[in-house]
Automatic annotation (TrEMBL):
Record-given protein name: Dihydrolipoyllysine-residue succinyltransferase component of 2-oxoglutarate dehydrogenase complex
Keyword line: Acyltransferase, Lipoyl, Transferase, Tricarboxylic acid cycle
Biased composition (Low complexity): 86-107, 263-276
Domain (Lipoyl-binding): residue spans on this chain: 1-76, 115-190
Single GO cellular component term: oxoglutarate dehydrogenase complex
Keyword Acyltransferase recorded: yes
Organism encoding this protein: Acuticoccus mangrovi
EC primary class: transferase
Lineage: Bacteria, Pseudomonadati, Pseudomonadota, Alphaproteobacteria, Hyphomicrobiales
Description of how the protein assembles with itself and partners: Forms a 24-polypeptide structural core with octahedral symmetry. Part of the 2-oxoglutarate dehydrogenase (OGDH) complex composed of E1 (2-oxoglutarate dehydrogenase), E2 (dihydrolipoamide succinyltransferase) and E3 (dihydrolipoamide dehydrogenase); the complex contains multiple copies of the three enzymatic components (E1, E2 and E3).
GO biological process entries: lysine catabolic process; tricarboxylic acid cycle
Length: 512
């Protein structure tokens, strides 16, 4: 007998509710086949069969709440495997019925070797599951090694799963929208690429779905829904997604521009007074992406958990702007990257973190963890939401090294190509609302960090200098901090250190 138990459900999650069983007692099951679905306060998780056999016992019913490790049922091994054997008989009887057996190898391109399984890869530290956002290949399609098969969306980034070998898609075990765990079965590839002569008829026989700008990529489900409702087809819209896929934003933009299309005739409606029902008809309900849901949850958790306060200061940007103006052309010619303000602020923050280590610390239970390394998170806005890639060991990088890293992160963030490990392990975060025109804001902590610096727009303001009023380029700075770790004096000191370094950049060179 093989036990079926409640798996680890993630950090701080100790119990779940059984929302449904997919199998009944006595049913034959195969290894990794979903048996039941568990629902926690965060996610829904399918529990796969740990072995092939027969589901001999179910110990808990749908609707019951169970803890991690609880026995859910048992599988009697052997029966499921035996049940699968009749499927092998046609192959064994190939000599007796060659006409019936012949189509099977042609359908999956198999040469007799066991298919190669495609499984969910490791998704990074603490990430245990993902959502299947797109299936790029269907059963029967030929694939080359490393060709993308499916796209998975985690709470941080989208990841393409490539084919481990060349061959033909023998089976797919997932559908778009499914939630899959690390190591879960995605499908199988029959070894050896199918001959071109046999692959062509299969493709010609199946009418292709609406393509995205003629690229062969089907539109995203949300985009297809919007297009269908508007009476448009995907080939009328230019896609901006990967490989030209039409995204929902593309569809909405096309609809707003009024692209000529066969609009579905709206049923005649009698005139009526404005009402709540009428407003509802002009609303659009869109399911939040996993990334947006996670951003919302993490930001609210930060508010609920930390004793968050914000302190402000302003900084005269004259010295940095003069230095940048003097050397920006030479800097770009030598290093191949523009000299921006982020390198100055990154260096200034590192200096301030060394002077005020509490801002670089975090709480872990009843302990404080002081980090003697400086991994700076740089907030980057994308059309899918805010991401925070991490510049590791920023104290060891030159100005050029920091600028190159940030420029690379910005480009890949907008293209959705950041890796999971590039957004983990930050000790302090910098966010620049000034690029959007923000004059002043209170940035929210990027938990479990205890500090985040907010930069804002530079504007000419009158300031008193040496008893005289002068016009200077000024920027407001905001430091939000966790008051459980950082005292008010430390927060103010940190911000003053940043101000001093920006107003007198030579301090950065002299490590003052």
């Amino acid at each position: 007998m093989t036990d079926i138990r409640v798996p680890n459900l993630g950090e701080s999650v100790t119990e779940a509710t059984i929302s449904q069983w997919f199998k009944s007692q006595g049913d034959a099951v195969t290894a990794d086949e979903p048996l039941l679905e568990l629902e926690t306060d965060k996610v829904t998780v399918e529990v796969p069969a740990p072995a092939a056999g027969t589901l001999s016992e179910i110990t808990v019913k749908a609707g019951e709440t169970v803890e991690v490790g609880t026995l859910l049922g048992q599988i009697a091994e052997g029966e499921g495997a035996a049940a699968a054997k009749p499927a092998e008989k046609p192959a064994a009887a190939a000599e007796a019925a060659p006409a019936e057996a012949a189509p099977a190898p042609a359908a999956n391109g198999s040469t007799g070797a066991a298919p190669t399984e495609v499984r969910v890869p490791a998704l990074g530290e603490s990430v245990t599951e993902a959502t299947v956002s797109q299936i790029l290949k269907k059963e029967g399609d030929s694939v080359a090694a490393d060709e993308p098969l499916v796209e998975l969306e985690t709470d941080k980034v989208s990841v393409e799963v490539p084919a481990p070998v060349a061959g033909t898609i023998a089976s797919l075990a997932v559908k778009e929208g499914d939630t899959v765990e690390v190591g879960g079965l995605i499908g199988a590839i029959a070894g050896g690429a199918a001959p071109a002569a046999k692959a062509e008829p299969a493709k010609a026989a199946a009418p292709a779905p609406a393509k995205s700008g003629g690229t062969g990529m089907p539109p995203a489900p949300s985009a297809q829904k919007a297009l269908t409702e508007a009476g448009l087809s995907a080939d009328q819209v230019e896609g901006t997604g990967k490989r030209g896929q039409v995204l929902k934003g593309d569809a909405l933009a096309a609809i707003e521009k009024g692209i000529a299309a066969k609009e579905a005739p709206a049923p005649a409606k009698a005139p009526r007074a404005p009402s709540a029902t009428g407003d509802a008809e002009r609303e659009e309900r869109v399911t939040m992406t996993r990334l947006r849901r996670t951003i919302a949850r993490r930001l609210k958790d930060a508010q609920n958990t930390a004793a968050m306060l914000t302190t402000f200061n302003d900084v005269d940007m004259s010295a940095v702007m003069d230095l940048r103006k003097q050397y920006k052309d030479t800097f770009e010619k030598k290093h191949g990257v523009k000299l921006g303000f982020m390198a100055f602020f990154s260096k200034a923050c590192v200096q301030a973190l060394k002077d005020v280590p509490a801002v670089n610390a975090e709480i872990d239970g009843d302990d404080l963890i002081y980090k003697n390394y400086y991994h700076l998170g740089i907030a980057v806005g994308t059309d899918k939401g805010l991401v925070v890639p991490v510049v590791r060991d920023a104290d060891e990088l030159s100005f050029a090294g920091i600028e190159k890293t940030i420029a690379d992160f910005g480009k890949r963030a907008r293209d959705g190509q950041l890796k999971l490990d590039e957004m983990q392990g930050g000790t302090f975060t910098i966010t620049n609302g000034g690029i959007y025109g923000s004059l002043m804001s209170t940035p929210i902590l990027n938990a479990p960090q205890s500090g985040i610096l907010g930069m804002h727009r530079i504007e000419q303001r009158p300031v008193a200098i040496g008893g005289e009023v002068k016009i200077r380029p000024m920027m407001y700075l905001a430091l939000s901090y966790d008051h459980r770790i950082v005292d008010g004096k430390e927060a103010v000191t940190f911000l003053v250190r940043v101000k001093e370094a920006i107003e007198d950049p030579q301090r950065l060179l002299l490590d003052l």
